[in-house]
Description:
By secondary structure, the protein is α+β, with helices and mostly antiparallel strands. Helices cover 43% and strands 23% of the residues.
Amino acid sequence: MKEIVEVIAKALVDRPEAVEVSEEEQERATLLRLHVAEDDMGKVIGKQGRIAKAMRTVVKAAATRENKKVTVEIQ
Length: 75
């Protein structure tokens, strides 16, 4: 899951070297934290959050195939 978020984010931003994805295992789910450069934040979130929502949908679909629950947090 981590790789999926990283590939999508790097394709969207101007500074792909600043993209970092950290993975944290919680009780019932996995939390993925996406860190991007401050000036790229709008590109990752998109108008009215559409890109962020699409990214979360893709990750959720991939996680469902593996019977996991994954949450994506953009920072």
